Amino acid sequence: MKSRLIAAWRGLAIAAAVLLPLAGQAAETSGDGLTLGPADSRNVLVVHASNSVQVFRGVLEDFSRLNPSVRLEYTEISTQDLYAQAVARAWQAPGARTGPDIVISSAMDLQTKLVNDGYALPHVSPQTQALPRWANWRDEVFSIGTDPIVMVYNTDRLPAARAPRTRRELLSLLQAPDQPLAGSISTYDVQGSGIGYLAATQDTRLDSMAGALLAAFGRNRVAMHASTEHALDQLERGQTTLAYNLLESYTRHRIARGAPLAIVYPQDYTLMLSRSAIIPRQAPRPDLGAQFLDYLLSPRGQQMVQEQSGMRPVNASVIAAAGVRPVGLGVGLLVYLDPLKKKHFLDLWRAAVQAPAAGPAGAPATGGPGPGGALD
């Protein structure tokens, strides 16, 4: 009884902390970033991440409450740019302490490549050692939370009884005589999105009908979304009916706000991708990067990750009965980053989704990323 009361009080304390303002601290918000903590602090933690500021803000604010003397500078950057900037810094100023102290990305393959190529520092702590084996590779890249990759549809445009529950059912719907998804389906632009490329290549690895599904996308004039948020904007406005390969966490935020959307966890298999973190080798304050990482992996941090960002805690990411299993960190993720394999995959992908159709209306709609690439 006493232990249950203590647990209840701890839960209430965390909930109260979330609701309290950051007393005595400045919070500065920009379109792609957030700054918390005293402006004159000597302890400046720089975080670069692909996580949306809107989705991740509650986690950042909780860390700032626990560490009021630390100035936290958070910048939202695309997965491709996170990778490219890390490589560029190493080439341009190999001995300099510059850039972020921790990098968090949903493109776990690109994070793994940074580790494999020597751009990350190791970190060992009780929190990292408690991770499942699939969530920690070489003590240099770590899962901080997982996100199922799902299908999402607009409930005003597609009856639940007709919504596909597997990829085979989706293929059948794309081939239906009444063409309910023609010009009304979207998926990631894998040329500009790191997480889109990862999800698409995992589909190719796991699903023998991935090629047929991609060809059906092309025949139905698939639209290319730059990010999950972009896809959800289109779905919510009724510009599309169904989106393939979206992050669950962002979708749940929209549904909680009343958007007419429903999530489908494909019953054949549901990919569970990690938001993974590394401490860059050139980090000016790797100690603060490690402190933030240990917070994210702590029981409190994992609770906040779940409650505030909608991601799943790392130790609760295996749902075997539902066919949901996490994709593990490791060298297996590097296969499709081989330049020749990547070129071959992208050539096939372009040929499929840009299949010729009659007249200008047959060209695939695009909403692809700008020069900077796509976010989550």
Automatic annotation (TrEMBL):
<feature type="signal peptide">
    <location>
        <begin position="1"/>
        <end position="26"/>
    </location>
</feature>
<protein>
    <submittedName>
        <fullName>ABC transporter substrate-binding protein</fullName>
    </submittedName>
</protein>
<dbReference type="GO" id="GO:0030288">
    <property type="term" value="C:outer membrane-bounded periplasmic space"/>
</dbReference>
<dbReference type="Pfam" id="PF13531">
    <property type="entry name" value="SBP_bac_11"/>
</dbReference>
<keyword id="KW-0732">Signal</keyword>
